[in-house]
Amino acid sequence: MASITEKAMRAIFIFCGLAIILFLVGILYILLSNSMPGLIELGLGPFFAVDRWNPGAYGEPTYSLLNMIYGTLMVTLGALIFAVPVGVAAAAYLAEIASPWEREFFKPIVEILAGVPSVVLVFFGLVVLAPLIARAFNLNSGLNAFNGALLVGIMALPTIITLAEDAITAVPKEYRHASLALGGTRWQTIWKITIPAAFSGITASAMLGMGRAIGETMTVLMVTGNMVARPESFLDSVRTLSAGIAIDIGDVVFNSIHFHALFVAGLLLFLITFAVNLLADILIQRKPEVSK
Amino acid sequence: MKTGVLDRGIVFEKKKSEWRSHELIGFWALRLTLVLVLFILGIIVFDIVSKGAGVINWEFLTQPPRVGMTEGGIFPAIVGTFYVTLITIAFAVPLGVGAAIYLNEYAVQGKFTRLVRMSVRNLAGVPSIVFGLFGMAVFVKIFGFGPSLIAAGFTLGLLTLPVTVTASEEALRTVPRAYREGSFALGATRWQVVRTVVLPRAIPGILTGTILGLARAAGETAPILATGAAFFLPHLPDSIRSQFMALPYHLFIMSTQHHAISQVRPIAYGTALVLLALVCLLNLAAVLLRKRYRDRVAKGL
Questions:
Q1: pLDDT at B295
Q2: Nearest one of A150, A145, A130 to A83, comparing CA atoms
Q3: A251, A256, A257, A260: CA torsion to nearest 10
Q4: What angle do CA B170, B202, A284 make, to 5 degrees?
Q5: Under a CB-based contact definition with an 8 Å cutoff, are residues A217 and A241 in contact?
Q6: How many CB atoms are closer than 10 A to CB B17?
Q7: Is residue A142 within 8 Å of A72, Cβ to Cβ?
Q8: Count of domains for chain A
Q9: Within-domain flag for B187
């Protein structure tokens, strides 16, 4: 009797572990199988043609994702330009300089910021930031790539701070002691020794922040304006891949070309974030070591 | 304990007066980045609390929207979020804890466990809108649930799964090996050890992770756009096959999709505050639980 329970429980737990892999493979399979009919019907070309996303057009609907890819790139890069320097500096401070009470004080704040639902954060961007941006740059509307990048950057900050801090803390203390013993100042030790030693971990944190930024949906949906035209500058309205899916997902006709085209966008998004996360994963495994 | 302080370099702090001035400027520049984070959080919370607090009263929390959603409360959205969160727990917790138990208690560490762990990390990185697509294709269409509480709950459950697995594994890992070995030596089987020795001690940690996962799920909008969230429903959901209203979706509607956006702005602020308060309370509960738990572990109890 006991051995039956024993075997059953083992089987259940193995199934749970297996299920995780199956879910990830399942997501890829569903994205592939639902985008295939669209890819077969149209080929790969129209999705990357210099054109617009206009699946509802009479006569000649177009399904180009190109402008949305531009939009995603602009918002992601803009977010990283802001979030990586601020995040790494904050992480360096927390890991190397902050006194224990400062850490006790600032770390929960970073955690709370991570916990703020994106829809709440972006509501703030919509009602407070957008008018400010419109006034500052003399625009009709503050709903543009700049606003989106700023908010997505804020959203990526906690990820970058937490992971970069872990990476810096993981640098063996021997590195610091050696530098200080040789007469290096703490400032020199941080920038010349500790941070370079933690470089792969810090890069990983930036990449995971990037993964977060690429996939962020509600933010870009609500504050970037969502125009499908090709953006010329950060002050233009953009539509990203994630927002493009979110806009159409509610009322798309099941199994239409439009439906399959949304899955092509989803597949692209999945592959990009998967590659970014995988690379980050590899980088995180590389830790500085002390040679014996 | 002493060395822990020394490792952080605090030992050098005694010579504070000897720090060179350019170093001090540099340190302050770094500190300012954290002050900036504090400032961002502060200004968001202040704006939402100051403009949302006036809207919140008993009626707002217990009445459905009226007059084309320009008046009344957000009761159905609160109830909907509560229900969908329950389904998320029912989906994610057994699977997540089970996977963690497999990884930490049953599996021989090797290629397969590495693959499982890698899948967990990559699942955590999948964009929420892709979960939405998956949920729409699988739960809504293939399983035939239609847009419903159960389809949305399962979709959110998938999204929370990585948080649950990671937190549960961490909790299991804090249980000392000696406990397991002691029980094995007394002739206990593996399942007996897990059930009577490991799990009871890991429960607070698992609970913490579960709450954190829920806080994330409760605030997500993209995955429920096409899996069950409704613009407006005249009555509360009466089965798991019903559509539902949810707080984050309601906020999205009230701030961008409503026909009289400026008129309903106070309602949007009120909704934002309720959602923010809910998520903060969940996070606070998790943090307090974790702190108590870590103190207990540190004391070796």
A1: 76
A2: A150
A3: 70
A4: 0
A5: no
A6: 5
A7: no
A8: 1
A9: yes
Token duo for residue A281: 């994963």
A226: domain CATH number is: 1.10.3720.10
Nearest CA among A263, A144, A157 for reference residue A210: A157
Q: Is the pLDDT score of B219 beyond 50?
A: yes
Comparing CB atoms, the residue among B34, B118, B190 nearest residue A6 is B190
Least confident stretch, A47-56, A157-166, B264-273: A47-56
pLDDT at position B90, please?
Answer: 92
Per-residue tokens: A264: 């092509």
Strands (E), chain A: 53-54, 62-63
- Closest to A234 measured CA to CA, from A244, A224, A220: A224
Assigned token pair, B47: 């704006």
| Residue labelled with tokens 């239409």 | A256
The rounded distance, in Å, linking the Cα atoms of B210 and B102 is 18
* Confidence (pLDDT) at A2: 62
| Backbone angles phi and psi of A51, in degrees to 5 | -160, -170
B202 contacts chain A (CB < 8 A):
no
Q: Which two tokens stand for residue A139?
A: 């625009």
* Domain assignment present for A290: no
> Which pLDDT value is given to residue A219?
84
Dihedral Cα B255, B256, B262, B263, nearest 10 deg: -70
The DSSP annotation for B31-55 comes to HHHHHHHHHHHHHHHHHHHHHHTTT
Q: Say whether A93 and B118 touch across the interface (CB within 8 A).
A: no
* Interface contact flag, A117 B219, Cβ < 8 Å: yes
Taking the CA of residue A56 and the nearest CA in chain B, the distance in Å comes to: 19
Residue A103: domain span:
62-285
What is the span of the domain harbouring residue B150? Answer: 74-298
Would the CB atoms of A31 and B165 count as touching at under 8 Å? Answer: no
Indicate the SS3 state at residue B217.
Answer: helix
pTM of the model: 0.89
B205 touches chain A (CB under 8 A): no
- Is residue B234 in some structural domain? yes
How high does pLDDT run on average in chain A? Answer: 87
Q: Is B48 at the interface with chain A, CB within 8 A? A: yes
User: Distance (Å, rounded) from C-alpha A165 to C-alpha A202?
Assistant: 8
In a domain, A8, yes or no: no
Does the distance separating the beta carbons of A214 and B138 come in below 8 Å?
A: no
Residue A74 CA neighbour count, 13 Å, CB half: 25
Inter-chain residue contact B41 with A161, CB threshold 8 Å: no
Rg (CA), chain A: 23
Domain count, chain B: 1
**CATH at residue B226:** 1.10.3720.10
Is A171 part of any domain? yes
Question: Has residue B117 been placed in a domain?
Answer: yes
ipTM reported for the complex, 2 dp: 0.90
In a domain? residue A79: yes
Distance CA A207, CA A222 (A): 24
| CA atoms of A33 and A260, how far apart (whole Å) | 9
